[in-house]
Each structure stands twice: as C-alpha cells, then as structure tokens.
Specification:
5 strands; mainly beta; single chain; elongated
Length: about 130
C-alpha cells in the first residue's frame, strides 16, 4: 500500500485530484488557510507544497540533486552559471545517520561568531605540505 498523506484540517469539498492506473497521484486541497498541492509517485515518494510556503520532499530511496554549469544559462555567450548557492535564513541542521563525505577541489569554512568541532573518538587532520 502506498504512503498516505493525512491532514485533519482539510475539508472534503475543497479537495480534488486524480490517481493514475499505476498509482501516481496529483492532489490539491483548497481549504481556506490550509491550501496544499501534492505530487506523489506510486512508490510513495512525494513533493508537498503547503499553505505557509513550506515545501516537503520525501524520497523513499536516494535523493539526488544535480546542478551543472549550463543549468542557468541566460545567454549563449556566458555558458551558464558557475556557482550554485543554497541560502537559508534560519537555523539549519544537517543530521546524517551514516557517514558524511564531502569531496571538493577547495573547502572554505567561515563562522561569523563561534565555531565548535567535536569528535567522539579520533580527530585527524592531515596535509601533503
């Protein structure tokens, strides 16, 4: 059975949508002050847009995001954007249950105030120079 998205504040007369024969769903809920739009794959993975502007993405397997240098081409001469920026205007927590790997050509870390590093056991830093 596919994952069910429940919301006790929705009113039936403001809801509509459709489900394809294979189980993909598109639903919108126009209940005043609780509008939502949901696009759901038959696997249960879905994207939900909420009334307050929140967006929820649920992936039942891997979640991959890809940005290439031509992803934001505004003219044919520039070849596109060379920077992708994620801007968060509130606290942000990245909680990883497994291993977090970061691979990059350069790494810059800047803290406007205090910075803390903690290792439960070993903490190693190495360099070739």
């Amino acid at each position: 059975m596919a994952h069910q998205i429940k919301d006790e504040k929705q009113e039936y007369q403001y809801s509509s949508g459709f489900t394809t024969p294979s189980g993909h769903e598109f639903h919108y809920y126009d209940t005043p002050e609780n509008e939502r739009l949901i696009l759901k794959h038959a696997s249960g993975s879905h994207i939900e847009f909420k009334a307050d502007g929140s967006v929820m993405i649920k992936s039942l397997k891997d979640l991959n995001m890809h940005s290439s240098i031509v992803s934001d081409a505004t003219d044919s001469e520039s070849g596109g954007a060379d920077t992708t920026t994620q801007h968060i205007e509130t606290n942000y927590t990245l909680d990883v249950s497994g291993t977090l790997n970061i691979k990059c050509a350069r790494l810059n870390i800047e803290a406007g105030e205090t910075a803390h590093l903690y290792a439960g056991t070993d903490f190693r830093v190495s360099s070739n120079n």
